[in-house]
Design brief:
Layout (H helix, E strand, L loop, with lengths): L8 H15 L6 H10 L6 H14 L5 H7 L16 E7 H6 L8 H11 L9 H9 L7 E4 L17 H7 L10 E7 H5 L7 E2 L3 H4 L5 E2 L9 E3 L13 E5 L12 E3 L1
Antiparallel strand pairs: 1-3, 2-7, 3-8, 4-7, 5-6, 6-7
């Protein structure tokens, strides 16, 4: 951890004590996995990483010190180079969260849920134009969005080898147990967002983007452009992690392929 060398001795002592305390909570704990990610961070430049760690230490012993320091240091990872930008990306979102983005001018929440259920598995071109207009106008996320994609062919549908079991999908993407909720898999093309103003910028994810969310893993290669999802238990299919990048929230005008539900 090169950033550690630039910290003052008292700061190093405080940082090390906090990481040891987190790791003592057990290898599967949120705190221990966050400590692992901090110790294995490769995406942040040393000066940016030192800034994050310094702000974290200054906020201690506040229990939210790490999360609050991270919020002030998001999108600090390197920009994804033009040649590496995935062509097709996707994300999973709880359907109730997605419904909450509805402005209510066209459909009620119940109508919208029903239409999404009927659209499951259909190509976007086959959807009712009124529904498609609503989807195009809706935000696909808020605050900071994590997007996944296929490698090496980033133009392919991101969820081709995903089944429609919500637990399996969340496992694959390093998301917590949906606890019976229905999830929606949304795919979108980067070209739409790169050709309109403001031009979408994509960043390599860092521990600051993950914040208190521990189910992320830094890429071991400091020159790579993406991080990894951390598949969660039970992972019955022994699925590997998926590549991911981060970007600011977008609307659905770039939606591509099809609507998929996972139950």
């Amino acid at each position: 951890m090169a950033a550690r060398a630039s910290l003052a001795s008292p700061q190093v002592v405080e940082l090390d004590a906090q990481l040891i305390a987190w790791k003592s909570e057990g290898p599967s704990s949120c705190a221990s996995q966050t400590a692992f990610n901090i110790e294995n961070e490769t995406a942040l430049e040393p000066s940016a990483f030192a800034k994050l760690l310094t702000e974290f230490i200054e906020l201690l012993p506040d229990s939210d010190a790490w999360r609050n320091a991270c919020r002030k240091n998001q999108f600090a990872g390197s920009l994804v180079a033009e040649v590496s930008i995935p062509i097709a990306m996707g994300r999973l979102i709880d359907i109730e969260k997605f419904v909450s983005f509805l402005d209510g001018s066209t459909y009620s929440p119940n109508q919208f849920r029903q239409l999404l259920a009927e659209a499951d598995g259909k190509d976007l071109a086959d959807l009712d134009p009124a529904l498609l207009d609503v989807l195009h106008s809706m935000p696909l996320g808020e605050f900071l969005m994590w997007s996944t994609f296929n490698l090496p062919d980033t133009s392919s549908y991101p969820f081709d080898d995903f089944d429609q079991n919500a637990v399996n999908c969340c496992t694959r993407l390093g998301l917590r147990d949906p606890k019976g909720s229905t999830c929606i898999l949304l795919a979108y093309g980067s070209t739409t967002y790169r050709q309109t103003a403001p031009k979408l910028i994509m960043n390599r994810p860092t521990v600051a983007d993950a914040g208190g969310f521990e189910l992320y893993r830094p890429h071991s290669d400091p020159d790579n452009f993406h991080g990894w999802t951390y598949p969660t238990a039970p992972n019955l299919r022994n699925l590997p992690g998926y590549p991911e990048i981060v970007h600011k929230p977008i609307y659905g005008n770039g939606l591509a392929f099809r609507i998929r539900l996972a139950i």
